[in-house]
């Protein structure tokens, strides 16, 4: 089985805008189609409260004609057109879908951040983890989220093994970003967020990229858009992950980043794992 995960930073723009960035996003979507994977997870879709429009669905059904899709959107009391997630999965797969709430603080449970697919023998779940904010104004809430999310994954793991993916908004170790010393108090690299991710892994989960590749350096999944040379200079962060239940670690075949060309921001990641799909 193969899975791709990507923080697309506005599915609406990628499908309907004529901007240069949107064209680059469509190039990435077309590359994802070519991989012909079983499941695709998209984060930060930024769809309206009623989900994809008729035009969105027409375009998605044309581009991903072999896939069914489900989505979760941000709704009141959260901001509209914010966050959001989507799964696309091959037609014919037997899937049960849920949109979990985990007791997150503030409006986090209403921001469309989680979707879970249940298969006969395992779960695939995705997250768009809340950002702590430029001034760390949401850090204390983020810490609660991290704990609640870890509790949720453990609850799934007690039923059947778990594959969890998405934008976790944290660079776990110094090796996971280009400039650790300059980002000690930056969102995504605070001690609190890193500890939250450590605690998650310690509860029975594996970071598949590090498990396969060890301490390989300078491999990232995100480059800041505001810095025009961030991708050229590879001053990035690794904040997108595939993590799996510990019992699945020896079934992981590959876990890697895909080349998104000149497009900055997130790049897709791919997991291949030896699990049968029914």
Any descriptors?
Deoxyribonuclease I, Chain A, single chain, 14 strands, 278 residues, 24% strand, 6 helices, six-stranded mixed β-sheet, alpha+beta
Question: How is this structure best described in words?
Answer:
- The protein has 278 residues and is an alpha+beta fold.
- The protein has one domain (2-273): Endonuclease/exonuclease/phosphatase (Deoxyribonuclease I, Chain A, 4-Layer Sandwich).
- Helices cover 25% and strands 24% of the residues.
- The chain has six helices and 14 strands.
- It has helices at residues 11-16, 20-35, 54-63, 139-157, 191-202, 208-213, and strands at 2-7, 39-43, 67-72, 85-90, 96-98, 114-118, 123-128, 162-167, 205-207, 222-223, 240-245, 252-257, 265-266, 269-273.
- The strands form three sheets. Strands 3-4-2-1-14-12 form a six-stranded mixed sheet. Strands 5-6-7-8-11-9 form a six-stranded mixed sheet. Strands 10-13 form a two-stranded antiparallel ribbon.
- Strand 7 (123-128), helix 4 and strand 8 (162-167) form a beta-alpha-beta unit.
- The model has no long low-confidence stretch (mean pLDDT 97).
Structural class: alpha+beta
Residue fraction in strands: 15-25%
The gyration radius over C-alpha positions equals 17 Å
The sequence of SSEs as H and E is: EHHEHEEEEEHEHEHEEEEE
Strand order of the largest sheet: 3-4-2-1-14-12
Poorly predicted runs are none
Q: Judging from the principal axes of the Cα atoms, what is the shape?
A: globular
Count of structural domains: 1
Mean pLDDT, all residues: 97
Oligomer: single chain
CATH class division? Alpha Beta
What CATH calls the topology is: Deoxyribonuclease I, Chain A
Overall strand count: 14
């Amino acid at each position: 089985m193969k899975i791709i995960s990507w923080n697309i930073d506005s599915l609406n723009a990628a499908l309907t805008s004529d901007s240069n960035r949107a064209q680059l996003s469509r190039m990435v979507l077309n590359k994802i189609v070519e991989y012909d994977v079983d499941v695709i997870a998209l984060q930060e879709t930024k769809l309206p409260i009623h989900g994809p429009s008729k035009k969105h669905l027409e375009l998605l059904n044309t581009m991903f004609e072999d896939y069914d899709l489900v989505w979760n959107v941000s709704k009141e009391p959260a901001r509209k057109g914010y966050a959001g997630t989507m799964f696309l999965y091959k037609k014919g797969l037997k899937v049960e879908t849920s949109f979990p709430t985990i007791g997150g603080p503030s409006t986090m449970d209403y921001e469309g951040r989680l979707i879970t697919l249940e298969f006969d023998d395992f779960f695939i779940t995705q997250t768009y983890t809340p950002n702590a904010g430029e001034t760390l104004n949401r850090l204390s809430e983020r810490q609660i989220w991290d704990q609640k999310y870890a509790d949720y994954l453990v609850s799934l793991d007690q039923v059947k093994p778990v594959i969890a993916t998405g934008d976790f908004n944290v660079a776990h170790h110094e090796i996971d970003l280009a400039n650790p010393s300059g980002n000690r108090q930056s969102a995504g690299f605070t001690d609190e967020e890193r500890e939250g991710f450590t605690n998650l892994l310690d509860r029975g989960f594996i970071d598949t990229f590090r498990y396969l590749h060890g301490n390989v350096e300078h491999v990232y999944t995100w480059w800041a858009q505001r810095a025009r040379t961030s991708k050229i200079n590879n001053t990035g962060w690794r904040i997108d992950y595939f993590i799996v239940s510990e019992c699945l670690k020896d079934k992981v075949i590959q876990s890697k980043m895909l080349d998104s060309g000149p497009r900055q921001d997130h790049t897709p990641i791919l997991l291949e794992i030896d699990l049968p799909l029914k």
